[in-house]
Amino acid sequence: MFSSFTDNTPPSFNNTCPDNKVFYATECSSSALLTWTEPLAADNSGHVSISYPATRPPVNLSIGLYNVLYSAIDSSGNGANCTFIVQVASKLSHLQF
Q: 28 and 7 in contact (C-beta within 8 Å)?
């Protein structure tokens, strides 16, 4: 006899989703080399698929704000997201006069 169960538990990034980050452009430049530890997803089924963003470390980005989204989905279609913002700022923007 088969036992049937429905998996309603979404994958989890288990506290590996980075916090928002600020990087500063190098002197005389309008960009910075960004790095962060990419999050890991797990699921109770043991099968999880992760969608990675187009912006992945290491990456050189211009001054601005960037939304970063990692998505995880299990074989039952349950999903979870890891999202954070990275900002590239000018060093001059935080000088005090």
A: no
CA distances from 17 to 37, 38, 39, 71, 91 (A): 9, 7, 5, 11, 26
The Cα 97–Cα 76 span in angstroms is 57
Report how far residue 85's alpha carbon sits from residue 34's, in angstroms, rounded to the nearest whole number. Answer: 12
Strands of 1-97, DSSP E: 21-24, 31-34, 48-51, 59-62, 64-74, 79-89
Q: What is the pLDDT of residues 40-55, one digit of tens each?
A: 999 998 899 999 999 9
pLDDT at 80 over 70: yes
Q: Read off the pTM.
A: 0.85
CA-wise closest residue to 46 among 75, 80, 4: 75
CA 25 to centroid of chain Cα atoms: 21
